[in-house]
Model the fold of this input.
Amino acid sequence: GNSVTQMEGPVTLSEEAFLTINCTYTATGYPSLFWYVQYPGEGLQLLLKATKADDKGSNKGFEATYRKETTSFHLEKGSVQVSDSAVYFCALSDRDAGNMLTFGGGTRLMVKP
Amino acid sequence: EPEVTQTPSHQVTQMGQEVILRCVPISNHLYFYWYRQILGQKVEFLVSFYNNEISEKSEIFDDQFSVERPDGSNFTLKIRSTKLEDSAMYFCASSFKGLANYNEQFFGPGTRLTVL
Done:
């Protein structure tokens, strides 16, 4: 079956530091990949997505590249802000396995001033 | 900007009671979903719904659960006899397309269900 594995948190960084959150996946078909963000007390918001190999999703300074050869979709940001503190979820959608999203366990990011 | 809404934001109930969680998906969306997130754990798929019937469900979605689209706007999740382990945040989501190259789902803010 499909699965998503994320690095465990929490990840604690100082403001303006470089962020990487690793995500790898296993899928039977050809998935689309997503990063969702959950700010404290709120629901899930789509941060970025990529639908085919070598696609780069980007939004709000965050980027992730769909790497089919390494089955990865790592999230990066060059300079984090305190306001980026949240839980980040990597997810996939596989048309061959139905319409549901399969989520990773989430990575909590804490950015200190 | 259109958004998915959910009510109530927090529901407290006694074990064994029935609860109904309500969602209003984005108006032109055709596919509807429920997910849950037990505190500190990953978000888990429960069920998807299209064309007035369940299209997929997980092993979590047993006979205690049901979904309904009672009118043209609402999408509900009913738990017939709640258990302590049903305590979780329940997220509704909707999407315009299902079987597409990608499937962008829009999530509501969630309903926190607490079973005492």
